[in-house]
Every structure is written in C-alpha cells, then in structure tokens.
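Tip: read the tokens left to right.
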C-alpha cells in the first residue's frame, strides 16, 4: 500500500524513481479507507532531504499514510526556499485542533545550545505538550529525542569530548518487543552528535525503558511504559551519502573532525561509503507504524485517549 503525499511535493520524483509506492492526494480521494494520519515536525535545515528520507522509511508498509509537514514559526529557516515552506508546511496554529495517529520529531543541529537557548524552544514545548493529548504515538529522533526526554522527564543531555560520528553496532535489550520484530541480534545505525543522554539518568525514571544500546555510542532506543513515546538517538533514516556530506562540509569549514567510523572502506574518504543499516532502518519504522500506531490507534481519531496504552493488539 502507498504513502499519501501532495501531488507536487519534490520528494515524489525521487521516490517514484526508486519504485517507492506513493499515492497523490487526487488519487487518494477516490479510495474509501481511512489512512493513518502522521505529522512530521521537521527541524532539520535540509528540509527536502529530510522529507525524502522519512517518507522513504514510512512508505514500505501495507498501510496508506497521510502526511502533514509541520514547521516552527519562531525560527527563520535559511536553507530552504520560503515558497516550499508556504506550499507544503503547516504551522502549529493550523493543526492544534487536529488529531494524529503518529508524529515524528526530527533532529536539529542545535545540540551544543542549552535547550532554553534554542530560539524555537517555547514553541517546541507547546507542540510536545499538545502531542500528549492529540497524538497516539510520537517518534523522536536524535536531538528531538534529547529534547523530548528533557521536556517530558527532565533528563539532561551531556557534552561529549568529540563528535560521535559514524556507523555503530547496537544490541537489543528487549528482544521480545514488536519494535524489533524481524531484527538480527545486532544491527547498525548512523550517529552524528556532540551530546548524549546517559543510561543512568534514564534508569532513574520508572516510566522509561531502554530498548537498545551500543557499547561505543551509548543508548540508542528508549520508550515509555505505555509505548506512546519513542526516543531514538541515532539517524536510521540517513541515506548512504549523508555522513559523507557532513564530513566534507566540516573539512571544508576547517573543523577538526575525524573520518566517520565504520563508514568508508578502509576508512578512506575517497571511496564510496558502505550502506550497512538500510534494512534494519526500514524494519524499525515499519514496526513502529504497524504495532504502535496502526494496531492500537482508535478508528475515530478524535477519540485518542492520553491515558491509553500504545501496546500492540494481538495480530489477526
């Protein structure tokens, strides 16, 4: 089944070229099923790239998914044409009365700032508070996960001695969780960050469960006990070349940066990077959509209960 997107969204051409099953709004209007309604709060400066990465991950399921793209009004985006934002993005005021089956909050390149120094922090807090009553399941990524744990649980982030940068191996602590259904014992995922959330801080919160960790990169996946909030501290959605572009940018700007680990063959940045995380990344998003959104969200979407569990129903 397809993912539903606006007819003229730039990601459509890329996804069509990859044989990703998408459906335009015009065609979807003639189908008599209720699609899942997802909201993506895109905090990344490279808006179109991030849209495409996330839509790719959300598309390979037997579900029709309808996407709204959300922007922060209190921040002036400098790396995307304003006409793109005007055409494809909504503001919080536009959607504050709506309900969503799922929501994704992306990362953002602001992790070296204290949370309250980020110019859109008050607006983000308002959105995260709203999500508790208007979104069935929320999936936080990297800085978005750090922000979510800080806002909802008061868990601080800590600076690293140097950037955690590369592809790291992870092991699953909750092997019976549907979130990891179909996974191998270990899996790879990209990381690109200067800060971390520490396991000992998470373990002090009885409502939280650590689901996967890396011996090198630390905590990777956390959820709350009701399975309504997920916090992912890497970037499984990244493309093959994403870390390479970050590395080349930092080198060009004269930053002291190590070659991303476990990424280039023989650590040689002149060679094509190895793609070693795609299958598990796809499976992670598919499992979240199926078991924690589709299987548990109410059919009448405005009946979302903030106190209800998000654990999956028995499979039919």
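Filled-in amino acids:
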């Amino acid at each position: 089944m397809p993912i539903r997107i606006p007819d003229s969204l730039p990601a459509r051409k890329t996804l069509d070229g990859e044989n990703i099953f998408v459906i335009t709004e015009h065609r979807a209007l003639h189908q008599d099923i209720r699609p899942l309604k997802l909201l993506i709060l895109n905090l990344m400066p490279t808006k179109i790239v991030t849209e495409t990465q996330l839509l790719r991950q959300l598309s390979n399921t037997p579900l029709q998914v309808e996407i709204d793209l959300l922007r922060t009004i209190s921040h002036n985006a400098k790396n995307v044409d304003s006409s793109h934002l005007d055409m494809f993005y909504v503001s919080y005021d536009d959607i504050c009365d709506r309900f969503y089956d799922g929501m994704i909050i992306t990362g953002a390149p602001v992790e070296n700032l204290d949370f309250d120094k980020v110019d859109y922090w008050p607006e983000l807090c308002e959105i995260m508070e709203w999500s508790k009553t208007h979104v069935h399941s929320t999936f936080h990524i990297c800085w978005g996960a750090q922000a979510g744990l800080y806002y909802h649980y008061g868990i601080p982030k800590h600076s690293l001695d140097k950037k955690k940068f590369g592809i790291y191996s992870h092991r699953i602590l909750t092997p019976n969780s549907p979130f990891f259904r179909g996974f191998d014992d270990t899996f790879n995922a990209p990381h690109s960050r200067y800060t971390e959330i520490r396991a000992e801080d998470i373990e002090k919160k009885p409502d939280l469960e650590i689901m996967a960790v890396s011996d090198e990169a630390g905590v990777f996946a956390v959820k709350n006990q009701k399975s309504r909030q997920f916090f992912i501290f890497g970037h499984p959605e990244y493309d093959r070349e994403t870390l390479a572009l970050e590395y080349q940018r930092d080198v060009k700007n004269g930053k002291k940066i190590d070659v991303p680990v476990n990424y280039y063959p023989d650590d040689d940045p002149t060679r094509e990077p190895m793609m070693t995380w795609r299958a598990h990344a796809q499976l992670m998003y598919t499992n979240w959509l199926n078991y924690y959104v589709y299987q548990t969200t109410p059919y009448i979407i405005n009946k979302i209960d903030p106190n209800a569990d998000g654990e999956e129903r028995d499979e039919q």
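The chain has ten helices and twelve strands. The chain has a mean pLDDT of 90.
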